[in-house]
Amino acid sequence: MTAVRAIVQATCLLLDFDGPVCSLFSDPTDRAAVAELGAELPEPLPGELRDANDPFAVLRYAATVYGDSVMAGLERRFTEFELAAVQGAEPTPSADEVIRSAATNSRMVAVVGNNSPAAIDAYLTQHGLRSFVSGIFGRTAVNLMKLKPAPFLLEEAAGRLAGHPGDCVFVGDSITDLEAAHASRVPVVAFANKPGKADHLARHRPAAVIHDMAELLLAHRRSGILLE
User: Is residue 25's pLDDT more than 50?
Assistant: First the structure.
């Protein structure tokens, strides 16, 4: 499937949050989040997690070890961390234009990310984008084991907004995004937003690889469907 076909045929545009919409976390903030979450747990993190920079791995680990009360507190702390990060999040170039243009041209837009819906909502509201977005599908205290690369969030978004996965296109910037899309049967466009990333993502068979969110607008223009 070409980029033009994948993008133009979709009636619902699904976007991962951290990457395609904005830059929320960097390596230092990821490590800080791991330290924050680890401090909330009754016992120290295992060494391999303590030295890593993936807060979602900490959540998955804790969900297999601790009960609901600990997980509720951990989820609440991570959401607070994300809400603070939103204040300084850097918008991805052209992402706001893509969201506004798609919604204005009768396409539903949803954000599907492993981040807290509260943080996603706060970012969209802060940047005047919330009214253009039909749905937010993200992490809750009860779906921690169903986050991407599991297909759950994409299946939920496609089912609620489009009715069929083939009527959507998902833009993601990670291997877990591509794995989730394939498992949910939602066509996926890989966003290679860092040098050397395109070849890495292309091995996982996306419908297309883009390097700039503005390429989504270009695909419509090439098809004769202008997004203004």
Answer: yes
Has residue 221 got a pLDDT over 60? yes
pLDDT at 3: 56
Do residues 58 and 34 touch, judged by C-beta distance below 8 A?
A: yes
d(CA 15, CA 22): 11
Cα(198)–Cα(193) distance, integer angstroms:
8
Cα–Cα distance list, 48 to 45, 56, 57, 121 (Å): 8, 14, 10, 32
Long-range contacts of 180-183 (CB under 8 A, 24+ apart): 180/148, 180/149, 180/150, 180/151, 180/153, 180/154, 181/151, 181/154, 181/206, 183/149, 183/150, 183/151
Residue matched to tokens 């989040």: 33
pTM: 0.93
Cis peptide before 149 (omega within 30 of 0): yes
